[in-house]
Amino acid sequence: MPSSESAESIAEVLQHIRQLVLQWDPSLVICDKDDAELNAIAMVFPKATILLCDFHMKQAWDRWLKTASHGVAKEDQNKVYAQMVFISMAPTVKACELRCKEFEQETFYIGNRNLESMFSHTLTRSTEWHKSEIMCPLDKFWPPTTLSKL
C-alpha cells in the first residue's frame, strides 16, 4: 500500500501489481473521481477507458448540491438532483442533449454561476453520459483542462 495517495504512489502500486500479473492490461477501469487515482490509472494504463462509478457520481452531485456556498436553494436541491439523474439515464445521445437544454432553462439554473459551471463540466458531455455508455467515460475529458462547453 502506498504511504500517501499521490498519483505517483498509486501508480507505483499499480505497476507492482502489473509486474505480478503479467497479462494485466485492462481496457476499462471504473473508479471514483479521485484526481490521484485518475492520473495514476492514466499513467499506468494509457489505453484504458476510465469510467466514473455511477454511485460515486451521484454521491458527488448530492454533496455538491448540499454545500451552501454553491447557492442551490434547499427547496431546489432534490429537483436538481433528480433532473441530473434523469439526464444521465437518457437512452440516446439526442435525448441527453435535449434533457441538458431543458435543464439549462430551469429557473434554479439560470443565474447560478456555480451550478452552470458544475453542469458544464459534467452533464453536458452528452456522448459520455447517456445510458448506453453505462457510466461516464472520463477518457474524453480528463484531465479537466480539456473540458469544453456545448
What does this molecule look like?
This is MULE transposase domain-containing protein. It comes from Cymbomonas tetramitiformis. InterPro entries: MULE_transposase_dom. The protein is mostly helical and 150 residues long. The chain is built from seven helices and three strands. A three-stranded mixed β-sheet has the order 1-2-3. It starts with 6 loop residues before the first helix and ends in a 13-residue tail after the last strand. The relative contact order is 0.13.
Quick rundown:
By secondary structure, the chain is mainly α. The chain folds into 2 domains: 7-52; 54-133, no CATH class. The chain has 7 helices and 3 strands, in the order αβαβαααααβ.
Any chance you could write out the topology, listing elements then pairs?
Elements (H helix, E strand, L loop, with lengths): L6 H14 L7 E4 L3 H10 L4 E4 L1 H13 L7 H15 L4 H11 L9 H8 L5 H4 L6 E2 L13
Parallel strand pairs: 1-2
Antiparallel strand pairs: 2-3
Helix pairs in contact: 1-2, 3-4, 4-5
Protein name: MULE transposase domain-containing protein
InterPro entries: MULE_transposase_dom
Pfam families: MULE
